[in-house]
């Protein structure tokens, strides 16, 4: 296989793995937030704020990996 | 830091070269027939030398690069620079108008009311919990960060606009300023000797040659994460929108158009939310790091919310 084909393939696999990790992490986070809001509705808005912040941080990490995938996908 | 930026600069240069080559090749071969080229759509997100308005294609002023020592200084204006300046001018006008209107009426109405709402939110939810009362002197910097990033993020969502924060050099500049502010706030709060002493981390003196470079490198990771997070969030949203529109061109039929536009509207709403969220997260993380730096060894009284 040519090098550029391997680069494209790797970019595809990489993007898939990235979304796997990100969706798993944010899913667990959202599940915990739902449970907490269900148990104690008074603190629901604070829980929501912390959830959004944590979700943004997790997404920040996934975008590092995504940037590498983009570099691979735009090689020539 | 220099290593990182040269790596990023090389990557950007390579990507720009790749896009230029591919575009040239596509044009040379009359390339609309052979199918969709992902690299081609990156042209819409990248920097360029012109600004487009409906009907007009403005070429921005270009200057010859100047050689100072070993560095080349190229001050020619590009699209992202234009939107940086535009965002700055808009922010200046809005801030001066809001500040002046307090002279007439202490209870704000309308637009100034909205600005005050955001300022109070950042002061009470972001600055005071993270940095304590000593952080109020950094409130102007954090508010500027928030509003400037917000205006630049939103500029990419209007027609004919471009996201300046979608350029990694812009977010790197913001992160560099955040880095200096974090160190400055730590030095001012703790004093230079204590700040340098913290770099050693309390290890015995013979471990210092290992400890200090690692600690200094660790200082750079947090602003680097800020830079990458903002850049990738802004660029990623635009790439998804352009790819969804590219589906129409890939299938080359009208049937795909309503489905594609519907998805794009959905992602567009998400991008609007992400624009606000990323501005807030940048500001909040900067204030958090500054608060951590200012706090140091002296554990403060736990504040009641």
Architecture blueprint of SSEs:
The complex is a heterodimer of chains A (76) and B (305).
Chain A lengths: L2 H37 L4 H30 L3
Chain B lengths: L1 H27 L9 H4 L8 E4 L2 E4 L6 E3 L2 E3 L5 H26 L6 H21 L7 H17 L12 H23 L1 H9 L7 H44 L4 H40 L10
Antiparallel strand pairs in B: 1-2, 3-4
Helix pairs in contact in B: 3-5, 4-9, 5-9, 6-7, 6-8, 6-9, 8-9
Low-confidence stretches of chain B: 1-11, 18-34, 299-305
How much of the sequence lies in strands of chain B comes to under 5%
Helical fraction of chain B: 55-70%
Uncertain parts of chain A: none
Using only C-alpha atoms, the radius of gyration of chain A works out to 17 Å
Main sheet record of chain A: none
State the largest interface: A-B, 17 and 23 residues
Give an overview in words.
The complex is a heterodimer of chains A (76) and B (305). Chain A is mainly α. Chain A has 2 helices and no strands. The model of chain A has no long low-confidence stretch (mean pLDDT 89). Chain B has helices at residues 2-28, 38-41, 79-104, 111-131, 139-155, 168-190, 192-200, 208-251, 256-295; strands spanning 50-53, 56-59, 66-68, 71-73. Residues 1-11, 18-34 and 299-305 of chain B have low confidence and may be disordered. In chain B, helix 3 (79-104) packs across helix 5. In chain B, strand 3 (66-68) and strand 4 form a beta hairpin. In chain B, 69% of the residues lie in helices and 5% in strands. Chain B is built from 9 helices and 4 strands, in the order H-H-E-E-E-E-H-H-H-H-H-H-H. At the A-B interface, helix 2 of A face helix 1, helix 8 and helix 9 of B.
